[in-house]
Amino acid sequence: MTREQEDLIHKHMALATKLATQPYVPAYMRQDAQAVAYLSLVKAANKFNVERGIRFSTYAHTAIKRDVSEYVGRYRTAVTPSRRDAARGVRIPTTNLDALLAREEGDDAAE
Question: In terms of Cα–Cα distance, which of 57, 71, 62 is closest to 24?
Answer without folding.
Answer: 71
